[in-house]
Specification:
Length: 190
């Protein structure tokens, strides 16, 4: 087993009697690729494409492991995380998203996730996250987001929460509306 640079200590899949893994993602190629790779690693994979399919699995046959996408066509993956955590207290859940930001990471962990990963991911990183030892802390990332990028992410998050209303977002962020419009019109910093 390859140890990821972010997860110093790992458990082994053989330590778990239940090797069931839910992969919930609406990206068909990614879900299929990860499913095949995780089956090769020894997991018993159940696939789901929608929140309703994920909730069905979480209620009727909760899995021991889960990789759950945050934003899906029919809702929010956090609903599945909550349901799975309720039905299987020791489930090891990793949130997956293409929209990585701090508030959603905090919400995912509060809902019961053990980690949070931004797309794209590979099977080795997913395995490392799912099997990370609970008492070990992840090492700091090699290439963290810049302060400008964090600020840009926060502004866009508030903008989305305000239903893309520029005036309301500017009021809540205590900035001039035109300054906000200039920031929103630019691409994300690296």
């Amino acid at each position: 087993m390859r140890a990821s640079k972010n997860y110093p200590k790992q458990l082994n899949l053989s330590d778990f009697s239940d090797k069931s893994l839910l992969i919930l993602d609406d990206d068909d190629p990614l879900r299929g690729r990860l499913s095949r790779a995780m089956e090769k690693k020894g997991f018993q994979v159940k696939e789901a494409k929608t929140v309703s399919e994920g909730l069905e699995i979480a209620k009727n046959s909760p899995t021991n492991f889960a990789l759950v996408d945050l934003r899906l066509e029919d809702g929010n993956g956090l609903d599945v995380v909550n349901e799975l955590s309720k039905n299987k207290k020791d489930a090891r859940i990793v949130m997956l998203t293409g929209y990585g930001n701090l508030p959603t990471a905090v919400a995912a962990v509060k809902a019961g996730a053990i980690d949070y990963m931004a797309k794209p991911v590979d099977a080795d990183d997913v395995e490392a996250a799912l099997l990370a030892s609970p008492e070990s802390k992840a090492k700091p990332p090699e290439n963290p987001m810049s302060a400008d990028r964090v600020k840009w992410e926060h502004i866009h998050r508030v903008f989305e929460l305000c239903n893309r209303n520029v005036s309301e977002t500017a009021r809540r962020l205590k900035m001039h509306r035109r300054t906000l419009q200039r920031i929103l019109s630019k691409r994300s910093p690296r």
